[in-house]
Design brief:
Blueprint (H helix, E strand, L loop, with lengths): L1 H24 L4 H11 L3 H10 L3 H11 L4 H17 L2 H33 L4 H59 L1
Helix pairs in contact: 1-6, 1-7, 2-3, 2-7, 3-4, 4-5, 4-7, 5-7, 6-7
Length: 187
């Protein structure tokens, strides 16, 4: 069971590092303020150009609203759904690892205990070190499984909270852009 646990830990670390850099990169909403300012001044093309230069999820949602001004709300909603999926990428795997690792550790412990009892049946109770060594190995599997889960759980919860926070930011700016576009179309 140690091999699957090692694989789980490698995958978890890879996802954690990738998501960390992803969320570090998208943590800037200054572009949205500039876009809204340009739209409020009637510089729609400049606002669209500014959003197209950015690869941030928020900018992509705003670009969809500017591009499809006749139905900006639906365009931004559709783009928002896509961008939320991008932000959640890898989190289901991380969640599975958090759940699976302790179970793999327990399975390793159970297998180790079965092996220890088989050794005891063959050798007898006259050699306790043969049995206790197997028990110790079995408990290492549980400890490893729980360690992998704990290491993955904290970043997972952080990333889920970041997705929720970024989603709220996207909704906030999308609503403000929709109002600004409505105001511009009425002028």
């Amino acid at each position: 069971m140690m091999l699957p646990l090692a694989l789980c830990s490698i995958i978890a670390v890879a996802i954690i590092i990738e998501r960390f850099f992803f969320f570090k990169r998208i943590g800037k909403a200054a572009v949205a303020e500039e876009v809204l300012e340009l739209v409020n001044y009637g510089c729609i093309n400049d606002a669209l150009t500014l959003t197209k230069k950015s690869s941030l999820p928020l900018a992509k949602v705003l670009a969809a609203g500017i591009t499809h001004q006749l139905d900006a709300a639906k365009a931004m909603e559709s783009a928002g759904i896509t961008e939320c999926s991008v932000m959640k990428r890898g989190l289901s795997v991380l969640d599975t690892i958090v759940t699976l690792s302790p179970l793999l550790g327990l399975l390793g412990t159970i297998i180790g205990m079965i092996n220890s009892f088989q050794i005891m049946a063959l050798v007898g109770t006259g050699q306790p070190h043969a049995v206790t060594g197997g028990v110790a190995e079995a408990l290492i599997a549980t400890a490893t499984g729980i360690t992998v889960a704990v290491i993955a759980l904290i970043p997972y919860n952080y990333f889920v909270a970041r997705v929720e926070r970024e989603t709220e930011v996207i909704e906030h700016y999308a609503t403000r852009l929709e109002m600004a576009l409505t105001t511009q179309s009425q002028e």
